[in-house]
Fold this sequence. Notes:
The structure holds 2 protein chains of 2 kinds. Chain A is 27% helix and 28% strand. Chain A has 16 helices and 28 strands. In chain A, the strands form 5 sheets. In chain A, strands 7, 8, 9, 11, 12, 13, 15 and 16 form an 8-stranded antiparallel beta sheet that branches. Chain A has a 6-stranded mixed beta sheet with strand order 2-3-1-4-5-6, sandwiched between helices. A 6-stranded mixed beta sheet of chain B has the order 3-2-1-4-6-5, with helices on both faces. Chain B has a 4-stranded antiparallel beta sheet with strand order 8-7-9-10, with no helix packed on it. At the A-B interface, helix 1, helix 3, helix 4, strand 2 and helix 5 of A face helix 2, helix 3, helix 7 and helix 8 of B.
Amino acid sequence: MDIETFFQNQNNKKQLKILTCGSVDDGKSTLIGRLLFDSKNIYSDQLTQIKIESEKYGTQGKQIDLALLIDGLQAEREQGITIDVAYRYFETEKCKFIIADTPGHEEYTRNMVTGASNSDVGIILVDATKGILDQTKRHTFILSLLGIENIIVAVNKMDLINYDQKKFKDIISSFKKFSSEFKFNLQKFIPISALVGDNVFQKNSNINWYNEKSLIDELEEISLNESLEEEIFSLPIQFVNRSSSDFRGYSGTITSGKIKVNDEVHVLSSKEKVKIIKILTPKGESDFAVKEQAVTLTLDRAVDISRGELLCSVKNHNYFLSDQFASHIIWMNKEHMIPERNYIFKFINFQTIGKITDLVHKININSFEKIASKFLNLNEIGYAKVALNKNTIFNPYKNNKKLGSFVIIDQFNNQTVGAGVIEHELRRASNISWHQMSINKNLRSSINGQKPCVLWFTGLSGSGKSTIANIIEQKLHKLGKHTYLLDGDNVRHGLNKDLGFTDVDRVENIRRISEVSRLMVDAGLITIVSFISPFNSERKMARELLESDEFIEIYVDTSIEECEKRDPKGLYKKARSGKLKNFTGIDSNYEIPSSPEIVLETKIKSAEELADEVILYLKQYNKI
Amino acid sequence: MEIYQKQISMKLSHIEKLESESIHIIREVVAEFENPVMLYSIGKDSSVMLHLAQKAFYPNKIPFKLMHIDTTWKFKEMINFRDVTVKKYNLDLLVHINKEGVRNNINPISSGSKIHTDIMKTQSLIQALDKYKFDAAFGGARRDEEKSRAKERIFSFRDKKHRWDPKNQKPELWNLFNTNIDKDESVRVFPLSNWTEIDIWQYIYQENIPLVPLYFSKIRSVIRRNDMMIMVDDDRLKIRENEKIEQKKVRFRTLGCYPLTAAVESDATNVEEIIIELLESKYSERQGRLIDNDQIGSMEKKKQEGYF
Lengths: 624, 308
């Protein structure tokens, strides 16, 4: 063979990182062994050793147990299970594969997450004799959470069900049913037998009803989305290279887009613009560099850039400088996560102290239900708010996996205890300065003798919030006061019509309402907000946006039984029958305010009487 | 046409991706650790690792020292090559020898491979790491070499006694590396984790990386012992009565201590020929390493004790 042709072929091969996941006995190790064996990536001395070991530990009688090629650690060989993430390498004519092999047990969810974090494709093994298991659902969920866009569902052990097409189709349809919420770019189903080799490399006449590609053909044809044209350039600075006097270079690995000599880029934290003078790539000095290249750049002038900084395109970038964000978190340690405890958060090019301020919910990874919880246990996944002790640069995970991911490290024993993917930043507006206007809210509100404030009603659906709020507004109007009533249902028709009722959307709903109320208070209005607003943290967020005496929290105290009895919109009935998901008080949590300014007990007094109590409060505190 | 070519060149090849990944890892160590060292074994993987480190910090010098754990049983050509390389690139190299082991006449022939490897490699490495208080040590191991290596992290934690605990490894997600350790603890860092043997050779060819001549075939003096061809490098290898020195055209796929590393018959005299030979080979590179065959899982045991 001609060596240059060989290299050309090698260089044209695409690199594909795949993750195999499946339940304990679905045959993962056998499949990987089969892939290595059929792609002729096993040497004969290795085979000899496996033959010896097959006799000692094997489960396939006199046949070679291909799984033994894979189960690397002695402890595993003795127990016959895979206990950690192992990486395997094999290649075909078109592709260089790196396989992450991760175990199936629930207690090893963290290993699967680890494998998934570095993979482009997920192969989900399903045992044809067992069908879809909880583990299948869990693995599919994790792949989706970690942003894996391509999945292949390999229905294994077809030989044991006599290549029954109907059973295969049944498995497909039940897979589709539970996975309908997840968005994968590519989702394929292949009937295989890893043990015999059917449809792994070769198509097999045993499955003559299956006319699509074999597993390896399908893998080779997956195209990864690598269009750099649309991407924004980003380079997290990893290291400043300046040991000799006249050279000062900024090193790091490009996480998105491309860069050319003479391009202008932003130093994100200072917003300074700098020009690229020189680009040093692993291949030497170059006119340009692209995503995934480890580069060193020199700039047109000396600026203050250190590890942790981000260089990015000047226009249209969507990176944020913030100290708070919402994220999904996977807990990986035996000691459970503790909110408000300080941990080390490590990002691509820096680490800092921070804490999980608020666990919004955790997720049952077998049923995908959201459950209220105060903490996360080992292998649990939750949605949480994180506050860091300094402003940091980041981007949501869906935009940039490298910049949107982090690990959590225990600061006392240095264990990696968790990992997270950033969903969105909190306090989006922190980097925009507030315009100072000459007419302020005191001047605006003094015209009609009122002090602006927010009357924030909170309580269960049907507790009477809107009824009371409506009467209060009428009374204030009669007194000649300027008011505005923001009602939950009404706002959801317009401003917040893109939001649903998941916990995440509820948080965003309240955040927007809080911001709108702040503007209305600034306009001098007495603003009445009538929302369920079930979470303490969001009410706290709203309170913190205003001056201390401007936020009046009114808890409309009606028991769930009473609300359900009234059920003015028939919503409880729907929720009980399962037609309405995430309904507060039923399958979504309501956190009773700990110290509201006013409590209105609807069981004792009429709406009219309660409205008068609020008016009295406003008079006492000189609001009107 | 010009646009077409530009698009092609903008897509990184498999090797280019590996190259950048390794450079990223090397830089991360320098950014996060106070006293790193690169363990330099003189072999092909070490040569590639050294080459990548030079790229990572170009145009400056490598900002850490190299260290060679010399068992005193390395091939002469290896030591020559080491000294030439150090001079050529102006490297800071430490050479550590377990003097106690030398005093006790530990050697691979009469002490046996297990004891020799333990005292002159594992114990010697631990002595050196303690002596210089290195908090991070680069090694050139790859995951495709051996099954227990396949499970090791890129940043692999070692406790105060330099032990590896395979069941208690820190999860390694994305390319985020946990670099937090306590005093006297350390990490072994493997920048070549994801490279395969063929990747290494392709890179050596494309980058024209110099290697110890033992990798290339020529007529050498060998004896046959335990079905292996052992090169006669000096008179410390006593020829037994039933053995005779033969002149064979041989080379080495992997380099260790000379009586422990077997030669293979080969006609491959340059990198191209080695690659072609490799593609046609039916045997893995560790096949020539006696230490792996002592017992099932022997590499795993050695690693737990502190071996690379």
